[in-house]
Amino acid sequence: MNAPVPVVFAPLLQPKPWGGTRLATLLGKTLPPEPIGESWELVSLPHAESRVARGPLAGRSLAELVAQWQTRLLGRAALAAGRFPLLIKFLDAAENLSIQVHPRPAASDPLGWQPGVKHEAWYVIHAEPDARVYIGLRAGVTPDEVAAAVGTARLVELLRAWPARAGDCFYVPSGTLHALGAGLVVAEPQTPSDVTFRAYDWDRIDACGRRRDLHMAETLANVRYDVTPEMIVPARATARGSTGPGELLAACPRFRVVALREGAGTATVDLGGEPAIWMVLNGAGSLRSAGGDCAFQRGDVVLLPAEGVTAAEFYADAHWLEVTIPCGR
């Protein structure tokens, strides 16, 4: 198949001590008995590679499609270290995640293209009463205070705690201390990194009586002190999506997230010559392209190539996040 087509990839499920079962009930995922914390929906890393779930391309890897379709898939979007430039996940936090930090971008690389940098956004799909997220340091917290508290419960007191409700969106720049709180299911677009430094793990002990390793020196070397509340929860605005106006939830030099909704019927899809990723939260339908159609349903993540997609047919009211990649570096 030479013409690019929209594709859905098989999820790579990640067991986690803080995970649960709500990816099955809320998003239709088929889960094993063990708690699942993350479903990696679209990824191309040295140790993890997405493969097409169904259709004529079933079994083909994301890297193979990038190599085959090139600009017809990516448009003007740049690769990250030769690989697809985003990682797309769903997360289910039955318990608090560890307080952690990802590598701080170097001053010489403000857009964050260096390996390991992980900018991410959390869109809340489901929240239990009183659920919260921990993102960023309280105003005035100093490096000395963080150094004295890292690895202990005192670190929690230094963080900003944000109430979290379905429909909220939070942006977490790499280098920001953060933790997803218990009782949340979120959609997470991020830059393609799995580098995490754990600062505190809530004194959690596994079934064998062990605690997970902490990375206190790495944490202190990477914490940012310039992240403001306005960066974490930016003002909402109307933005153009591929099917019409939507709501801009988060934007950074590496990705942009717009929430879109459509009623049952057919809508024109205009990608403007750039790729898009649909994280389908509700509804079902089919995308039409010159190379063939692609059915989608709740819980699917669809990669739309830059070339060839013309329309979408929605079988019922649909709600999805559209993640796009700003051009250039």
Structure described in brief:
This protein is mostly beta strands and 329 residues long.
Terminal Cα separation, in Å? Answer: 31 Å
* Percentage of β-strand residues: 35-45%
Radius of gyration, in Å, reads 19 Å
Q: Kindly state the number of beta strands.
A: 24
Mean pLDDT: 96
Strand order of the largest sheet: 1-22-19-24-17-16-15
Task: Characterise this structure.
The chain is mostly beta strands. It folds into two domains: 7-232, Jelly Rolls, CATH 2.60.120.10; 237-324, Jelly Rolls. The chain contains seven helices and 24 strands. A hairpin with a 2-residue loop joins strand 4 and strand 5 (48-49). The model has no long low-confidence stretch (mean pLDDT 96).
Which features characterize this protein?
329 residues, mainly beta, Jelly Rolls, 2 domains, 7-stranded antiparallel sheet, 6-stranded antiparallel sheet, 7 helices
What topology emerges from the helices and strands here?
Elements lengths: L6 E2 L3 E9 L1 H6 L8 E7 L1 E2 L2 E2 L12 H8 L1 H4 L12 E7 L5 E3 L18 E8 L4 E6 L5 H7 L4 H4 L1 E5 L5 E4 L5 E3 L3 E7 L6 E4 L15 H7 L6 H4 L4 E5 L2 E8 L4 E7 L2 E4 L7 E7 L1 E6 L4 E4 L3 E4 L4 E6 L3 E7 L5
Antiparallel strand pairs: 1-22, 2-3, 3-6, 4-5, 6-13, 7-14, 8-11, 8-13, 9-10, 9-12, 15-16, 16-17, 17-24, 18-23, 19-22, 19-24, 20-21, 20-23
